Amino acid sequence: MPVRHRRTRIGVLISGRGSNLLALLEAIERGDVPAEVVLVVANRADAGGLERARARAIPTFVADRTAHPKRAERQELVRAALLAADTDLVVCAGFDEILLPPLVADFSGRMLNVHPSLLPAFGQTLHAQAEALAYGAKISGCTVHLVTDDLDAGPIVLQRAVPVLENDTVESLSARILAEEHLALPAAVRLFAEGRLRLDGRRVTVLDAPVG
Ligand code: GRF
Predict the structure, then answer these.
(1) Residue 14 CA, ligand 1 centroid: distance in Å
(2) 3-state secondary structure of 200
(3) CA–CA separation, 183 vs 141, rounded Å?
(4) β-bridge partners, 112
(5) Pair 174, 165: CB distance under 8 Å
(6) How far apart are the two ends of the chain, measured CA to CA in Å?
(7) Are 18 and 93 in contact (CB under 8 A)?
(8) Are 127 and 145 in contact (CB under 8 A)?
(9) Strands 111-115, 35-42: parallel, antiparallel or unpaired by DSSP?
(10) Using CA positions, which residue lies closest to atom 7 of ligand 1?
(11) Active site residues
(12) Cα of 209 to ligand 1 centre, how many Å?
């Protein structure tokens, strides 16, 4: 992943409240991440995260599931919007639909997802925290990975672990994991923006200095 000669232009995909989007925006505003969010895309018109973007005058695009029920057509609109925004990096921050190959292909090596488990455990589900709890896992956490056509199985960039406590509920475990997502996602975006991720096969190495 080469050095970039401009601030990394990010498109963020969301479906809901957008707390990961907010964590990223705040990290950028603090100066921790040399990037800018140039577009926020939602597949639901009522996604709370859209307000986070609008409050900052960041352009938004809604490919609503009701208005566009066919996933391929919806994602073609998303793809066109991301390309039109000249996006360097796409961040899936709580986007609740499986991405189809045309969209993944256009952003190969430059699309990140945050998942609320330590992958490959509890992948391919929208209920990873509940499944970790029901399974009896003692440790869980979050993973930021590159998106490939294999769902939740792309190269891992960062993981952060949390304990699963004996009195945990899905809500308490989810909240503990979410706090780590809010650290991991901006950190991974920072490494990408600084050109410090090297991919060998499916192993990601974090470099001290940017790739030349
Ligand atoms: C996060 O837990 C994310 O890992 C999962 O959906 C949740 C999105 O939360 N895929 P938010 O919209 O970022 O608050």
Answers:
(1) 8
(2) strand
(3) 12
(4) 91, 146
(5) no
(6) 9
(7) yes
(8) no
(9) unpaired
(10) 94
(11) 115
(12) 30
Residue pair 89/65 in contact (Cβ under 8 Å)? The answer is no
Query: What is the rounded distance in angstroms from the CA atom of residue 77 to the CA atom of residue 63?
Result: 7
| CA proximity to 11, closest of 66, 81, 103, 115 | 81
The strand pair at 203-206 and 197-200 is best described as antiparallel
Find out whether the beta carbon of 152 lies less than 6 Å from any atom of ligand 1.
Answer: no
Atom of ligand 1 nearest to the CA of 22: 13
CA of 158 relative to ligand 1 center, distance in Å: 16
Q: Is 25 in the pocket of ligand 1 (CB under 6 A)?
A: no
Euclidean distance between CA atoms 179 and 20, whole angstroms: 9
- Reading the block at residue 9, the tokens are 């232009």
Taking the C-alpha atoms of residue 2 and residue 198, their distance in angstroms, rounded to an integer, is 9
Packed helices 170-193 and 128-135: angle between N→C axes, nearest 10 degrees: 120
Structure tokens at 56: 């900052």
Provide the residue type at 189 as one letter.
Answer: V
Return phi, psi of residue 157, to 5°. -95, -50
Tens digit of pLDDT for each residue in 27-50? 999 999 999 999 999 999 999 999
Lookup result for tokens 């057509």: 73
Q: Which tens digits make up the pLDDT trace of 111-170? A: 999 999 999 999 999 999 999 999 999 999 999 999 999 999 999 999 999 999 999 999
Does residue 23 line the site of ligand 1, with CB under 6 A?
A: no
